[in-house]
Write a structure and sequence with these properties.
Layout (H helix, E strand, L loop, with lengths): L14 H4 L10 H12 L24 H15 L16 H13 L1
Helix pairs in contact: 2-3, 2-4
């Protein structure tokens, strides 16, 4: 799936350089997901409050449909996985932990 990270509004173009360190770093999938969410959603210090059971859909105001596309693109680009449209559902984005579990499954495959 081809996605473009060229979004306008909310400064979503500036995230790529700030999370480039995620690739190849020995971090848990949860920590990588939090780093991606922090930078793509511009959460700043609020990201330190994210836990595996923290809700994403409906729980983080910045996590809208455009953010979903951006987060998936960053997961693909920085973690070296490919995500097909049919793999994505609301269940993947229910919580930070469900997204990290999805990333774990993608990295294992």
């Amino acid at each position: 799936m081809q996605r473009s990270a060229q979004f306008s509004g909310r400064g979503r173009v500036s995230y790529a350089a700030s999370i480039s360190w995620v690739t190849g770093v020995d971090m848990s999938s949860f920590d990588k997901v939090v780093a991606i969410l922090r930078d793509t959603l511009q959460l700043g210090a609020r990201a330190s409050n994210l836990r595996p059971d923290s809700p994403l859909l409906g729980g983080v105001p910045e996590f809208d449909s455009m953010a979903v596309v951006t987060v998936v693109t960053m997961i693909e680009d920085h973690l070296g996985v490919s995500v097909d449209d049919d793999e994505l559902s609301a269940d993947v984005f229910t919580t930070v932990g469900s997204l990290a579990d999805f990333v774990d499954r993608k990295l294992a495959s």
